[in-house]
User: Which sequence fits this backbone?
């Protein structure tokens, strides 16, 4: 690391411009001016431990975060003659563009620093009389460095270095579970779309390291799913043997013999909708324009899953109806046996299409007892045995109700 001449600082005209720009909420000028004098507010040891000037801004190691923010407050007050003062929260947002700034890794040899970035373009980082770094920072949202201090502090976590990326051995059911980097990335992606996970672990979506911390908590609470227990699984796992499934609420973990984490998915919310969309699209790629049971798949991408041709009308099946059908399978006396154990979206489409094909029209008064107060007035109904199907718009099958299962969602709300 080299250090050369000190970066030039702004004079009185710069201070006057700063007062004006601060009043307008301008960030860029104040940040650049502060970077030029940051060495006057921190000791040589603090600079060496906490600061690196990079082409994309100033990297601040996490333990020096508070000192840098305090220094910015002091500098701001001094260089505006006390005319501009800001709270700690506002200074954090001004420096790092967020009240909760993203963390980055800076790797120097065998040293892995964790910290934040004051974003600003710096043409020649080495022209400042400060420690500098010309490499690229690693975003903790996309990467978990094997030398992250968090990992070193975990007694029961082992990092295994592999040519294709690190693997993490985590405590699980009095044994251990091997988590490849890709499986951890998949879990992090799932966490970002999971309301339930974020309620208990609000930091889970902020970085891969926090996702790992959340996964450790999840592994301590999941329960095995019996082989005969009804469970929707992705089609890619259907032909695989020796898979074991674990559940925590709506979250499902897929493991190889309970030893390696292979996959994770959620049967709730946005993640559930995305899973169904992906499964249907995969079926469409291999069966474009063909049929699954009585369901005709579209020849090109559509907002509907497909169509069932009845005697006098053509019914379009919406994703919401499929989701409600799957959720109510355990309540169905006629389906409980055939759907015992693992099943896929293909199985569901095959079954629901034949049920729809055998339906008859029904009047509102015939099904009102099962609808609740939220059923829209323009809805039409078709029934077969224990199933009631709700059609909205013209011929779109949007809702599905099993007479043994009370709906929890508002049928009046049209999903896009």
Assistant:
């Amino acid at each position: 690391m080299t250090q050369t001449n000190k970066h030039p600082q702004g004079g009185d005209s710069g201070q006057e411009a700063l007062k004006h720009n601060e009043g307008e909420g301008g960030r860029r000028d104040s940040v650049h001016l502060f970077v030029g004098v940051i060495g006057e507010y921190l000791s040589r040891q603090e600079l060496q431990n906490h600061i690196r000037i990079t082409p994309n801004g100033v990297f601040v190691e996490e333990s020096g975060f508070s000192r840098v923010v305090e220094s910015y407050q002091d500098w701001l007050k001094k260089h505006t003659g006390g005319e501009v003062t800001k709270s700690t929260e506002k200074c954090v947002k001004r420096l790092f563009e967020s009240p909760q700034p993203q963390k980055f890794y800076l790797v120097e040899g065998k040293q892995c620093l964790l910290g934040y970035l004051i974003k600003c373009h710096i043409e020649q980082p080495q022209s400042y009389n400060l420690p500098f770094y010309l490499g690229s920072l690693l975003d903790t949202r996309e990467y978990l460095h094997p030398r992250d201090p968090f990992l070193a502090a975990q007694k029961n976590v082992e990092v295994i270095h592999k040519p294709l990326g690190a693997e993490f051995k985590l405590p699980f059911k009095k044994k251990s579970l091997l988590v490849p980097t890709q499986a951890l990335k998949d879990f992090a992606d799932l966490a970002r779309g999971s309301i339930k996970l974020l309620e208990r672990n609000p930091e889970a979506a902020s970085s891969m390291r926090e996702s790992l911390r959340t996964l450790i908590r999840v592994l301590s609470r999941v329960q095995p799913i019996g082989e005969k227990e009804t469970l929707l699984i992705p089609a890619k796992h259907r032909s695989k043997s020796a898979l074991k499934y674990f559940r925590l609420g709506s979250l499902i973990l897929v493991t190889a013999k309970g030893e390696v984490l292979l996959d994770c998915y959620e049967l709730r919310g946005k993640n559930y909708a995305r899973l169904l969309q992906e499964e249907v699209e995969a079926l469409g790629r291999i069966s474009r324009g063909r049929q699954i049971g009585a369901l005709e798949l579209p020849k090109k991408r559509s907002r509907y899953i497909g169509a069932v041709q009845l005697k006098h009308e053509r019914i379009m099946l919406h994703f919401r109806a499929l989701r409600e059908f799957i959720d109510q399978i355990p309540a169905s006396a006629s389906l409980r046996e055939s759907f015992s154990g693992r099943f896929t979206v293909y199985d569901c489409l095959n079954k629901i299409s034949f049920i729809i094909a055998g339906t008859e029209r029904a009047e509102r008064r015939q099904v009102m007892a099962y609808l609740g107060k939220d059923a829209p007035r323009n809805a039409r109904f078709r029934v077969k045995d224990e199933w009631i199907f709700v059609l909205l718009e013209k011929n779109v099958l949007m809702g599905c109700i099993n007479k043994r299962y009370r709906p929890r969602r508002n049928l009046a709300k049209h999903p896009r």
Q: What stands out?
A: The chain has 13 helices and 22 strands. Confidence is low (pLDDT under 50) at residues 1-14, 17-25. The longest helix spans residues 269-287. The first strand starts at residue 51 and ends at 54.
